[in-house]
Amino acid sequence: MILNALVERLKRRSKGDFKGRHYEATLILQAVSWYLRYPLSYRDIEELFLERGLEVDHSTLNRWVLAYAPLIERRLRSFRKPHCGSVRIDETYIKIRGQWRYLYRAIDKHGNPVDFLLTAKRDLEAAKRFFRKMLQDQPLLAPDRIGTDAAGPYPPALRAARKAASWHALRSTTSPSTCSKGSRATTSG
Questions:
Q1: Which architecture, in CATH terms, is 86-187?
Q2: CA distances from 148 to 7, 155, 177 (A)
Q3: Is-above-0.85 flag for pTM?
């Protein structure tokens, strides 16, 4: 149901996105959503389509995911709910397909994810890219306060995000209890 509504909206907004494809937009989005939502490989999805009488190669599925996953994410961002006035930023080191990666994430006081970024490095450029993604794509959803774990790249990345977005309502905190009651150690810049 939601997928059909998304497909109709995608068709109306940008007719050129699916231009030249041999398959309908609903099939392409179904394949991409299966890949993103469930732990399925391209060959698993290829078999699922084959059971339904459609021959789709796994390399075609790969191209669809690479082409349409970012498009779907951008379109779904408009449905994001506003969060509390403050978010907590942290990163963790996770293993994905045999390689260690950093997962930057922003979480509101209710534990709901606000945004995330998966990157190979934990450095200033990755932190800047994360804040740029979180703050500039949806400026109306920008938090009032950002709590961090005082990692080295965060203060310069926040300063750069403020300059780039003209976003001065931010107060960054380094307290572990950003959204809880009590005193906070704040730094403004």
A1: 2-Layer Sandwich (3.30)
A2: 38, 9, 10
A3: no
